[in-house]
Amino acid sequence: MKSLVVIPARGGSKGIPRKNIKLLGEKPLIQYTIDAARDVFDDAEICVSTDDKEIKAVVESVGLKVPFLRPSTLATDTAGTYEVLLHALEYYESSGYRPDVLILLQPTSPFRKGRHIKEALKLFDNSCEMVVSVKETKSNPYYILREENENGWLVKSKEGNFKRRQDCPKVFELNGAIYIIKVEALRKKPIHEFTKVRKYEMDEVSSHDIDSKLDWKLAEILFND
Q: Whole-prediction pTM value?
């Protein structure tokens, strides 16, 4: 089974400027994901997809070649991950490398390690379209979450007669750390339309995703703990 790891790293970041190459501890944020990928895959199987020359230079300073700069049309706020993944696939296939499985690793998950990727890979087989990493959510729709109905009243997001949160069914949220995708399925539809999806559960710390300045502060605390 041939694999291709794609680490998408856009230059623009409004919440935290230059987030992907901002230092967390003594390393740029993106290096944590590169290091995790290198624990499992050869460099030739790892692709950092970026539109940014500075990100390219930082990645290559740790010895990983960046094979292309993605076009500006795939570097906007509205550009989708699906198109970015297809672009990377097309590049490698045009070079003669045809992967069966694509592993998407977002650089905003610095506490995801190589062992997590290995464990998730063990759950992947030909029967599923994707294995995706998750964590148990604290915002259980049977208990905490509410929606506003047509009359303007708050109602439960998901009906259920549970008096304690512990009695509710376990509900999971995607943590953004690992996506293991069958290439054949990806060609047919984007990942949000997949129906044969298997979960890989991670703990809360390993699942930490950096999207805001508060997330970054917490990452610094976790890193120094």
A: 0.91
